[in-house]
């Protein structure tokens, strides 16, 4: 279903909502396109005219300056006009329904919605209802998916490791609440990673997580053994107030990535994190800033990936 | 007075503050100009360079993401630079007077203020005090006027009905608090509509509303009889808390537009609404989304009308 | 130290953080460059392509719509892309450190940070840690400095008076809390002003203010005697609630600039104020709006000065 929603009748990418159902060909096509945009950031004039005269709306029902900024920058580097709409303070306060908001913006002739929403499925819902010429990109929906984040992670891994079939990747931390983890697991499996491990206490794992195609570990040392890539997840501080976790200190002691812990991994292991990092909560500063960390590199690739997704979905480049 | 304030010595449009005093020639000129911009939205590159290097300031003393968005889009399609200033959170909090705020922005070399203010007359006040090279557009002031909204409504009607002299138009709902209704009444009478009716309970009508040149109805069925166009107004939910109205349900029963009610109107009657709509309060979903509804079309024409007003006021096109 | 931080190995301006240590040559170079940008505001198309494809981030840890607007306008007139980030509502709320925020934006390929922060030294701190290709401009840090404001003041004085060595300048008001005053004193002394006076009650003067190279007056009439320029400072209303000052009325009686008071100054004395002004608190309306006032002229020059600083720091013009 997601494939048919995301691709049009001619097999072109129209929406980018989730990794599921896209297939390895599309993930590679997105990464190849991003590769061609990497050089734009190095140019003196960091702009290409591919989306000139197009209007991209950042439709954020949940505040995320960081994610909004990456999409805004990506759109501007493609020469699009960008409208930032924070719906929490906007029309919904006046009782306008989600679809009425979308249809109104659509009627103004916008070309793309970048949607962030606290509820899973919001971007899909919008995608199912927009006019044929409008594209939707999911910038994070509830616990469900954050596909551009997963793609920039894959892109970063590919740049360093090339062949996914040889890789063991550990994803560590709050898997339960993480839309990023879900998207990463789908992407790694689609790209043929040898093994995907999730490392977390039982309270922070979804029910039947094994069905996603992962090996489960409850011990960090075992989970890191011989991995090629470790992806640390951000621990949402608000989880601490609930009964799921004893304390930050306790979490760090058991699941925090320190230099000592990292010795379990392969010597050339990449350390990744979607950011923003909590130093001393899920990761030690010496690791976050250390030689194996590619955390800031991920951020940079995030612009290229978002440019790629936008340009492909609006038909400005051939996938 | 409004005419002399809105037109310069050479008879060109300088400010756009109210429909009153502009005359039929100007309303038609604005619509003709908008007609030429309708095609821009259909182009691959939805931009014309008419206002390149001009700076438009959205000076909003009252939050309205929706209205701000339409002006921002219109300005960007004309290639202007746009500054969004929400004055509630800005200098006035530091005790700076309205005029000092305006004069400061003026000194920075801006070209146009799009003003939204909760008090009637705010845009006129600013227009009387700006430097000769600066234009002011009223984006809604108190209960007084919302002239670009009225013009996009006229434009929508003209596209469907052509000749105003044959039309009976009903405006239904909270006339008392509506700046939109006031501007629509002036525009319809200026354009020579055969009859303008207002349909509302006595508590939601201004004193002596007949003097504006309308027929008053307190019954929706009678009010809709043989009309060519029905314009539903948004019912501000906050009115409900006062003594003016019994309840939403009661209002809907008496003044809500349903498919059954609409049968009183002519078979080709247009259904209009300035948005955002309250489904089940002033209008039934089946009517809002039905075949006679041009509500979303209005939104699209709003961009063209705002482009026209901006381009005319800044002398980028000949009126 | 500030010189070495602000200039690169080749002696070019890289950051603009403070007037201290820059030297007369650089202050004059900035003013000369601003002179060349003054004409841009008068052009039909108020844009030059000097920073096309560059990304300027307004990184504001303290809200200041006014200052943010001037930098945004200046950047847009140079054709840069602008990102506005209000950090109070952004990632720091999620516990991300200042440097992580900066490094993330840096990784996205931005070229310049315009930094506003309530703590003295914040812009220096960021400048010491950014990547080699990134520039930092201080848009006000705590009580420390506001160098672009001081430069636009110097530029305004130079346009009217030409030769600083003949000038006596009085700075009047809350010197203690003013970052503007500190930067002005440094700039005036660097440019060789004959005499810089500070005029304030003892409670609003920093300890040992004489060491900055100023003459201290506690009496306004004496302080204004034969001055060529008087710069009034804004009285922060929140100071009134403390023990530093008896009342607004009392302050105005002793230190408010009225037409009568101004007679102590030279007949061609300029009246300046960084804005926003408090009418009837530190300055009478008749003086603020009078013939000697250049307050609004300062605002206009502020755009040219900020364009100059941005273009110099990013190497788009030769200093």
UniProtKB/TrEMBL annotation, chains A, B, C:
E.C. number(s) listed in UniProt: 2.1.3.2
Taxon lineage: Bacteria, Pseudomonadati, Pseudomonadota, Gammaproteobacteria, Methylococcales
InterPro entries linked to this entry: Asp/Orn_carbamoyltranf_P-bd, Asp/Orn_carbamoylTrfase, Asp/Orn_carbamoylTrfase_sf, Asp_carbamoyltransf, Asp_carbamoyltransf_Asp/Orn-bd
NCBIfam families recorded: asp_carb_tr, PRK00856.1
Catalytic activity line of the entry: carbamoyl phosphate + L-aspartate = N-carbamoyl-L-aspartate + phosphate + H(+)
The entry's keywords: Pyrimidine biosynthesis, Transferase
Binding site residues for L-aspartate: 94, 179, 234
UniProt domain Aspartate/ornithine carbamoyltransferase carbamoyl-P binding: residue ranges: 14-158
A molecular-function term among this protein's GO annotations: aspartate carbamoyltransferase activity
Domain Aspartate/ornithine carbamoyltransferase Asp/Orn-binding: residue ranges: 167-312
Reported function: Catalyzes the condensation of carbamoyl phosphate and aspartate to form carbamoyl aspartate and inorganic phosphate, the committed step in the de novo pyrimidine nucleotide biosynthesis pathway.
Enzyme class: transferase
GO biological process: 'de novo' pyrimidine nucleobase biosynthetic process; 'de novo' UMP biosynthetic process; amino acid metabolic process
Similarity annotation: Belongs to the aspartate/ornithine carbamoyltransferase superfamily. ATCase family.
Pathway noted in the entry: Pyrimidine metabolism; UMP biosynthesis via de novo pathway; (S)-dihydroorotate from bicarbonate: step 2/3
Binding annotation for carbamoyl phosphate: 66-67, 116, 146, 149, 275-276
Organism field: Methylomarinovum tepidoasis
GO-annotated cellular components: cytosol
Subunit field text: Heterododecamer (2C3:3R2) of six catalytic PyrB chains organized as two trimers (C3), and six regulatory PyrI chains organized as three dimers (R2).
Protein name as catalogued: Aspartate carbamoyltransferase
């Amino acid at each position: 279903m997601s494939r048919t929603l995301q691709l049009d009748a001619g097999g072109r990418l129209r929406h980018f909502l989730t990794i599921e159902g896209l297939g390895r060909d599309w993930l590679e096509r997105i990464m190849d396109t991003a590769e061609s945009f990497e050089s734009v950031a190095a140019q003196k004039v960091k702009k290409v005219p591919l989306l000139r005269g197009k209007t991209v709306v950042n439709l954020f029902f949940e505040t995320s300056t960081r994610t909004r900024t990456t999409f805004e920058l990506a759109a501007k580097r493609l020469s699009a006009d960008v409208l930032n709409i924070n719906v929490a303070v906007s029309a919904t306060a006046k009782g306008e329904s989600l679809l009425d908001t979308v249809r109104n913006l659509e009627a103004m002739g916008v070309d793309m919605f970048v949607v962030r929403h606290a509820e899973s499925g919001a971007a899909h819902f919008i995608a199912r209802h927009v006019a044929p010429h409008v594209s939707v990109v999911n910038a994070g929906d509830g616990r469900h998916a954050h596909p551009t984040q997963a793609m920039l992670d894959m892109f970063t891994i590919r740049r360093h490791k090339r062949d996914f079939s040889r890789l063991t990747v550990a994803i560590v931390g709050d898997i339960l609440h993480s839309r990023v983890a879900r998207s990463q697991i789908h992407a790694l499996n689609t790209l043929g990673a040898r093994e995907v491990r999730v490392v977390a206490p039982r309270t922070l794992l979804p029910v039947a997580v094994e069905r996603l195609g992962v090996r489960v570990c409850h011990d960090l040392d075992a989970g890191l053994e011989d991995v090629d890539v470790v992806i640390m997840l951000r621990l949402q501080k608000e989880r601490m107030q609930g009964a799921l976790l004893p304390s930050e200190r306790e979490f760090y002691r058991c699941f925090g990535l320190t230099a000592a812990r990292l010795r379990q991994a392969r010597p050339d292991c990449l350390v990744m994190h979607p950011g923003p990092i909590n130093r001393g909560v899920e990761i030690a500063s010496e690791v976050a800033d250390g030689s194996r960390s590619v955390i800031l590199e991920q951020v940079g690739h995030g612009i290229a990936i978002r440019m790629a997704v936008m340009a492909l979905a609006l038909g400005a480049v051939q996938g």
